[in-house]
Amino acid sequence: MKHTTKCVLYARYSPRPTDKLANLATADQQLDACRKYAKEKGYEILGEFLDEQVSRDAEIKPQLDMAIGSIRRGQVLVIAKPDRIGGGFPAASLYNYCDTRKIRIEAVEGGLNGDSPEAKMIRDITAIVTQYEQRIIKKRTSTNMRYRQSKGQKMSNLAPTGFKAHPADPSKWVVDRKESAIVQEICAMYDQGLRAPTITKMLNERGSRLRDNPWNRCTVRRILIRNEKMTAVA
Q1: How are strands ordered across the β-sheet holding 6-12?
Q2: What distance, in Å, lies between the first and last C-alpha atoms of the chain?
């Protein structure tokens, strides 16, 4: 009996000064391309995940975390283009994380599919080039960003873990005491020698939630990286 490969689809679109219908049309195009790709490959689609108004560089991509969390060994995450999951170190880390667990990430466009040394080399080079481009952009805008952050102004539509929109001024972030306490606890648990998978399991077992979603080890890793607690993905 022939085994049918299972997959989940993921799409993301960035915040843009356009109407919502235009953004949703972009998302529909991505998902349609992924559905067509899965059909051509003979994959069984288990689910679809969409991050709305989430930039490439956003620290948290809730639906991407849920998509990765739902995939099992031998299954596939299908995306329209490689940049849908982000770029630089976070994207490279995600590829490495999936590689170690025999989970494939396949893009409809981009030429990064496959497990050959050449395909992996292209993915690594793409991640390095993307990260270099990001560093150039960050260098050019760092002064303005530091000024805006010093005034409590937000830098994206999705607050990083530990922060929330200011109730009186949605253009600014303020500390979310509940989330911030969990972030501090995660860092303390890591200092005690616990790894991201164990921390994630402990948080979920006690019923802790992150904005109504279960904790995902990718999110925990990003929190640790952001807080300079971890420099590489295990």
Answers
A1: 44-51, 6-12, 76-79, 104-107
A2: 36
For range 203-220, the mean pLDDT: 90
84: which DSSP letter? G
Task: Tell me what pLDDT residue 22 has.
Answer: 54
d(CA 213, CA 63): 9
**CA atoms within 13 Å, Cβ hemisphere of 198:** 9
> 34 — phi, psi (to 5°)?
-70, -40
Cα atoms in the Cβ-side hemisphere of radius 13 Å centred on 163 = 20
- Cα R_g (the chain), whole angstroms: 18
Helix (H, G, I), strand (E, B) or coil at 175: strand
Distances (CA, A) of 126 to 60, 154, 157, 182, 232: 21, 29, 26, 34, 18
Q: How many CA atoms lie within 13 A of 162 on its CB side?
A: 16
Q: What is the DSSP letter of 85?
A: G
Amino acid at 206: R
pTM exceeds 0.85, yes or no: no
DSSP state, residue 111: S
pLDDT at 46: 94
Helix 88-100, helix 62-70: angle, nearest 10 = 10
Topology at the third CATH level for domain 6-127:
Rossmann fold (3.40.50)
Domain boundaries, the chain: 6-127, 159-234
Most confident of 61-70, 83-92, 156-165: 61-70
